């Protein structure tokens, strides 16, 4: 559901790599649906969801629509009893996201969220090594990224974009990554931002996590391009992932112990296939999705606290 970005095409390839078949393309625009189905070799295209629900072969739904359309498709799929994988964040605000989670739960369907940073083999390695005590107790997670806003690569160049929302495009994703790496919940935020054309495009914030560690983030659409960095600093050592926040999800991982750096070999995995494998396993009650609807809710709640801290200039509790 949704035809806008190259990422959608990668997900179609991932579906096929798992031995499944994409059956329908759904869009609010019939022309877009037909173009995408023809390009990707998907047999059916429609704007009519009832045609999709009447097909007994349809078991799962992947939603890549715009933020404003995700709510419509999630509700419809849940009412039809279909398990859902939706691009993150679920919505533009935590209240709506929480309602979607409750709606899906009441109908007994899985609501998984596509959070590519969780699928990164390097980030999963950081999480595993941290849990195994390889760097001692985590004291802080530092995330650095910046550069001019890069909209998702559209298949149709004429599709408009609004220049990006640093909160929904970046902040929510990074907060979700910090929750994934630490297993802790955000507690309190303090933040500062610079504006461009009336909206924040350069953001720095610190979040106190429930385990006592700190998330420190620099996120910007107003700087020159910066090679991204994710650092987990512990009492005994440090893990540093460079270049993992790009759409490619590649990069390198270095472990620093006793003043020495060593490269950590990591076997790369396709982000989209990894996400799909966990989702399908969850739909079959064999596994848990990499990210759930409640994970998206938690990230949005913390993101809203960061935005509030920017507006008020005061530390903001996260509830």
TrEMBL record:
Protein name: Oxidoreductase
Lineage, broadest ranks: Bacteria, Pseudomonadati, Pseudomonadota, Alphaproteobacteria, Hyphomicrobiales
Limits of the GFO/IDH/MocA-like oxidoreductase domain: 123-239
A Pfam short name: GFO_IDH_MocA_C3
Domain Gfo/Idh/MocA-like oxidoreductase N-terminal: 2-114
Native organism: Sinorhizobium alkalisoli
Oxidoreductase keyword on record: yes
Molecular function GO terms recorded: nucleotide binding; oxidoreductase activity
Domain of life, per lineage: Bacteria
Keywords, ordered alphabetically: Oxidoreductase
Statement: the UniProt record of this protein carries the keyword Iron-sulfur: no
């Amino acid at each position: 559901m949704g035809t806008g970005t190259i990422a959608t095409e990668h997900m179609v390839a991932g579906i096929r790599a798992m031995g499944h078949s994409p059956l329908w393309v759904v869009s609010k625009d019939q022309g877009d649906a037909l173009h995408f189905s023809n390009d990707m070799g998907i047999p059916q295209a429609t704007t009519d969801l009832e045609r999709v629900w009447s097909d007994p072969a349809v078991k799962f739904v992947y939603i890549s629509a715009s933020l404003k359309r995700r709510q419509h498709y999630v509700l419809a799929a849940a009412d039809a009893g279909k398990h859902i994988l939706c691009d993150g964040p679920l919505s533009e605000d935590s209240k709506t996201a929480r309602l979607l989670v409750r709606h899906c739960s009441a109908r007994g369907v899985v609501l998984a969220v596509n959070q590519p940073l969780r699928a990164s083999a390097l980030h999963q390695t950081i999480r595993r090594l941290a849990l195994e005590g390889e760097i001692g107790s985590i004291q802080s997670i530092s995330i650095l990224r910046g550069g001019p806003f890069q909209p998702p690569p559209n298949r149709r160049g004429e599709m408009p974009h609004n220049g990006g929302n640093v909160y929904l495009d970046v902040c929510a994703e990074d907060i979700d990554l910090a929750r994934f790496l630490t297993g802790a919940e955000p507690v309190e935020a303090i933040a500062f931002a610079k504006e461009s054309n009336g909206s924040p495009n350069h953001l720095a914030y610190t979040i106190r996590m429930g385990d006592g560690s700190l998330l420190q983030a620099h996120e910007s659409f107003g700087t020159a391009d910066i090679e991204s960095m994710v650092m987990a600093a512990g009492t005994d050592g440090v893990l540093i992932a460079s270049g993992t926040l790009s759409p490619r999800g590649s990069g390198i991982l270095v472990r620093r112990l006793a003043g020495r750096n060593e490269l950590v070999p990591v076997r790369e995995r396709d982000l989209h296939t990894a996400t799909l494998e966990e989702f399908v396993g969850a739909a079959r009650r064999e596994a848990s999705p990499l990210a759930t609807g409640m994970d998206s809710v938690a990230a949005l709640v913390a993101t809203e606290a960061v935005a509030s801290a920017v507006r008020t200039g005061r530390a903001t509790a996260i509830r």
